Every structure is written in C-alpha cells, then in structure tokens.
UniProtKB/TrEMBL annotation:
InterPro entries: Class_I_gatase-like, Homeodomain-like_sf, HTH_AraC, HTH_AraC-typ_CS, INH-QAR
PROSITE patterns named among the record's database cross-references: HTH_ARAC_FAMILY_1, HTH_ARAC_FAMILY_2
Gene source species: Pseudomonas fluvialis
Position of the signal peptide: 1-20
Higher taxonomy: Bacteria, Pseudomonadati, Pseudomonadota, Gammaproteobacteria, Pseudomonadales
Protein name as catalogued: AraC family transcriptional regulator
Pfam families tied to this protein: HTH_18 (PF12833)
Domain of life: Bacteria
Keywords attached to this entry: DNA-binding, Signal, Transcription, Transcription regulation
Length: 319
C-alpha cells in the first residue's frame, strides 16, 4: 500500500486538496484492495483553519516522515506570503531524500522549488504563474505547457483541474491503466487531455491604465477580419507605430499583430463548432485567404490543428 500524506496549511486551496483525496479514495473503492493510505498533516500537527473550514490532521511533520509520497495541494498565487508562513515545512522539505516521493499541485510547485527539490527536474505549475516561477527558479526545467510532470520521484501538476491528471497518473503507476480509466470514468473526466497551453485563454486581460488603448481593443473586436495594419491602429491612437507597439506590449504583453491574430483564432474556434463549415470558408471568414497559413497559425496558437480541435469538440459533445 502506498502511503500518501497531504499537506494542509491556512493557504491550502480546499478544492485542490479535495480533488486529490477523492481521486485516491475512488481508486481504493474501485480496486480489489486498498492501494493508497491517505493522511493529512500540518506544520505543527494542529487542526488548520481555512477561510471556510476547520480541517483535522493526523499529525505534524513526523507523520509525513516515512510516507512514500508527500503531496502539497495548491496554495494560491501569493507565494511570497506562503513561503514566509511555511518556513518549517520548507526546511523539512529540503532534507527529504531524492528517493522519497514529493508532489505539488498547481502553485505549490513554488514550495518544492524553494526547498531545492526541483533543481534540474522537469516541473510545471499554473500557466499564469509560469513567468514568475521561471524568473525565481531558473535551475528548474519548467514545462509550463504540460498538465503534469514526472521527474524521478518528483511530481507536479499545472493549474486547478490538472491535479486530477496527475493523480490519475499516480493511480495508473500503482494500480494499472484499467484502474486509472475506471477512476477517470467515475470522476467524469477525460484522460490524455493534451497540453495546458491548449486551455490557456488566447487573449490576456489588458492593463487598465491606458483608456485610449482599451478603446482601441474594443474597436478591434468586431473588425478582426478586416485588413487592419499597424499604421491603421496607430492613426486611431494619434501616435507613431513605434509608440503604439510600446503601449500595446505594456497593456497586453502582445504585439498588435499577435493580438489581432488571436482575435481571428477565437472567431475560428467558434466557427469550428459547426461541423458542416469547411476549413477554407472559416479561414476566409476570419481574414486568411490561404488555408495552409491559417492552419499553421491555429496550431501555433492552440497547440493543435483546426481539424483536431473540431474532432475533440465533436467527441466531447457525443452522449
């Protein structure tokens, strides 16, 4: 039996903890014999008060000392505060031997990396935290497009629901593919969901400190298929193309062309929901005369071809 200890602290995201717990419990119920021994622990062994729950634990760090796998559920985006509040845990993590398993869900990859446990390992975290993670932990091989990573006895998952993907992987490792499929079916989730980049919003939320640029973004929304270039957009803002580039990057993180391309891809995604529409017609409707160029751009932005995107939607809509 694999002993799994799940860490609980005041910053723990309860849904993340519950996802992991439910996945392993279902595996125990559906297998011929229990495969996972589940326990919760805190830094000091005391119950943990969350915003809307008081969670009991089986003990402190001593409970996790001999566990085969220690798992850290998500701890939110304010990782500076999380690091400060979990110093005792970080010191303990830093001493954990390489052959003993460690897993992080979503943002808690920061805790494993802070303790040095992901050095030279492949790891992932929520896509929105990837830039911050990469800057602070350059020694980690961040794979932000992946839903989960397994690097020796170090495991990590991307944002939110990706915790289930990692837990199903662990169920398969210890209970076989059949059991993992049974658990996935019970949870009504699809296995092999592809990359995290496929689920990332195409358009970033713009900064709010440039009202004129925000107005330009609103102006672009219904005109994505028109032959708009940098000069057109700069003229609307009464500035030079160079100034437009600077303001656009500051507000969105994208160039004007990249933003316009993503508007077109979003429109194409909606059109692909209609199975009778030809790809040539969709490409033309969103502003591309060449289907091949449209398909290459779609795959670059969405991490899958238009045809694969349509097949996936069609399969998901079947009863």
């Amino acid at each position: 039996m694999l002993s799994v200890c799940l860490y609980v602290c005041p910053h723990t995201v309860l849904s993340s903890l519950a996802q992991a717990y439910e996945c392993f419990q279902l595996a125990n119920q559906l297998s011929a014999q229990p495969l996972f021994k589940l326990q919760r622990f805190s830094q000091d062994g005391q119950p943990v008060r969350l915003a809307y729950a008081l969670l009991d634990v089986e003990g402190g760090l001593e409970v996790a000392e001999t566990a085969h796998l220690v798992m850290l559920p998500a701890t939110g985006s304010d990782q500076a505060t999380v690091r400060q509040a979990n110093g005792t845990l970080l010191n303990w993590l830093a001493r954990r031997p390489a052959e003993q398993g460690l897993a992080s869900l979503c943002s808690s990859a920061f805790l494993l990396a802070e303790a040095g446990q992901l050095d030279s390992c492949q790891a992932t975290t929520h896509w929105a935290l990837a830039g911050q993670f990469r800057q602070r932990y350059p020694q980690v091989q961040l794979r932000s497009q992946q839903l989960f990573c397994a690097s020796g006895q170090r495991f990590s998952s991307a944002g939110a629901q990706a915790a289930v993907d990692l837990c199903l992987h662990l169920v398969e490792l210890h209970g076989g593919p059949w059991l993992a499929e049974q658990v996935a079916g019970a949870l009504v989730v699809e296995r092999q969901r592809g990359s995290q980049s496929r689920l990332q919003p195409l358009l970033p939320s713009p900064r709010q400190d440039d009202p004129a640029l925000l107005e330009l973004l609103r102006w672009l929304q219904p005109r994505y298929a028109e032959p708009i270039d940098l000069a057109n957009m700069a003229a609307r803002l009464h500035c030079s193309p160079r100034t437009l580039l600077r303001r656009f990057r500051h507000a969105t993180g994208l160039t004007p062309l990249a933003y316009l391309q993503r508007l077109r891809i979003l429109a194409a995604q909606q059109a692909l929901r209609h199975p009778g529409t030809r790809l040539e017609d969709i490409a033309s409707a969103v502003g591309y005369a060449d289907r091949a160029s449209f398909s290459r751009l779609f795959k670059h932005v969405c991490a899958e071809t238009p045809a694969a995107y349509r097949r996936r939607l069609t399969a998901a809509s079947r009863p």
